[in-house]
Amino acid sequence: MYSGQHATRQQPSIIRSIVNIVVIIALVMGLSWALSNFVFKAYEIPSGSMETTIMPGDRLFSEKVTYYFEEPKAGEIVTFNDPQIPSRILIKRVIATGGQQVDLRDGYVYVDGVQLDEPYTNGLPSYELTPVRGLEISYPYTVPEGEVWVMGDNRVNSQDSRYFGSIPVSSITGKAALIYWPFSNFGLVE
């Protein structure tokens, strides 16, 4: 009789342990999903369009919380859905916001008539690009409200707003925050 009671007590504790493990796994997966969709997302940089600020192969976190409360600002580096292939994520620097006027003259970028100081381009010129077929971009270009003008820091190797025009703020998936790999490049994104 004693051994029967012992077996009965053992059975619920095994079932309880299995249920606890399943609940913990579900909570971890749910928390991971929520963090990835609402707080931050990890990306690996495939191209050199942001060199030398962000290098090909760098892995970084893009945080999403900031843009729940404020609009993107000029100078911030953002991740966004590619206007040509929406399932692909691009990363570029915001140069101008809605209502501002962008001009490209003699290899320099002007916003609202003022030449930008852009040390992150390492002196590379910013020339016009031939826009994607069916799009006409003429300068000076006024950024529509609710959109931003983005450009890669590596101006001679970046398809950006000079190619596909300004992008809707709604297509922005986050603000680049931290390079976490390789460790030699570890640091905040600026």
Automatic annotation (TrEMBL):
Q: Which SUPFAM superfamilies match?
A: LexA/Signal peptidase
Domain of life of the source: Bacteria
Q: Where in the cell is it found?
A: Cell membrane; Membrane
State the family named in the UniProt similarity comment for this chain.
Belongs to the peptidase S26 family.
Membrane topology per record: Single-pass type II membrane protein
What Gene Ontology biological process does one annotation of this record name?
Answer: signal peptide processing
Q: What is this protein called?
A: Signal peptidase I
Ranges for domain Peptidase S26 come to 20-181
Catalytic site = 49, 92
Q: Which reaction equations make up its catalytic activity?
A: Cleavage of hydrophobic, N-terminal signal or leader sequences from secreted and periplasmic proteins
> Where does this protein come from, organism-wise?
Parvibacter caecicola
Supply the EC number(s).
Answer: 3.4.21.89
A GO cellular component annotated for this chain's UniProt record is: plasma membrane
- Give GO terms: molecular function aspect only: serine-type endopeptidase activity; signal peptidase activity
Which keywords are on file for this protein? Hydrolase, Membrane, Protease, Transmembrane, Transmembrane helix
Q: Name one Pfam family in it.
A: Peptidase_S26
List the transmembrane segments: 21-40
